C-alpha cells in the first residue's frame, strides 16, 4: 500500500477527491448556519457564563469546580505530553482534550470575574437574593409562603435577565463549550457503563485520579457533564457548526502535514486515503457528528425540561 511519502500518485487517487468533497460539503453547510447566530432569539447573557442554574448554589462553587477541572485537565495533558512530546497532537483525542482544557481556563477566568462582580452588587440585591436562599423550604411551609418564595426567585431572575449580553470572550467560551462537549462524545470509545465505571473509580480512588486507563477518553466527558449540570449556559442546536469546523480543521491538518512529507503514517487507519473504503469511512465519520452533537444537546434539553419539575424549589430555568 502506498503512503503520502510516495508523492503525487498518492494524492491523485479518486478517493482523495471524494473524501475532499466529504470535508468541503459539511464545512459549507456549517458556514451556512453562521448567520443564524445573529438572529438568535435568546442572546447569551453575561450572567449565563458564571451564574449556576441552581439559585441556592453560590457562584463561587461553580468557580471552584471549574478551577479544579482546569487543574485536573492540565495535569492529565502534561502527563501525556512530557513522555511523548508534541507528537501527541497528531491525535484527535489530544486535540479535543486541549480544547476542553482551554474551555476550563476561559471558564475559570470568567467565573472569577463574575464572582467579583457578584460581590460588588448593591446591598439591596444581595439581601433579596439572600432572603430567597435562606428561606425554609420544607414541606411544612404553607402553600402561600411557597408561592411568595417562587415570586421572589422569579423577581431575582428577572433582574439578571436584563443584564448585559456576553462580550467577545463570553461568546468564545460558549463556542468552545459546545465544540468540546460534542467532541467528547465522538472521542469517547467507551459505553455508558464503562464511563460510569471510570467515574466510580475516580471517586473511590481520588489519589490515583491521573492513573485512570485511557483517562482522556472519558475524564473529559465526565468533567464537562458535571459542568453542564451546574452551569446556566444555553446549548442552541445550530452551533453544531463549530463542532464541524473543529473536526474538518483536524482532517485538513492531517492532509497538510502528510502532503508536506512531515508525517508518513496516519494516526487513525480510516484516514488513509489509499484504502478503497476510505470514502465510506469519511462519510461515516461525517454522519457521526450529528448523533454525537444531538446526544449532548439532548442532555442539556432534558436538564432544562425535567429539573424544574424534579426540583421546583431548587432549580430555576432562566432561558
UniProtKB/TrEMBL annotation:
The lineage of its organism: Eukaryota, Viridiplantae, Streptophyta, Embryophyta, Tracheophyta. It comes from the Eukaryota. The keyword Lipid metabolism does not apply. The keyword Cell wall biogenesis/degradation does not apply. The chain crosses the membrane at residues 12-34, 63-82, 94-116, 240-268, 280-300. Keywords: Membrane, Transmembrane, Transmembrane helix. This is Uncharacterized protein. PANTHER family: OS02G0130600 PROTEIN-RELATED (PTHR12242), PROTEIN ROLLING PROTEIN (PTHR12242:SF6). GO terms for cellular component: membrane.
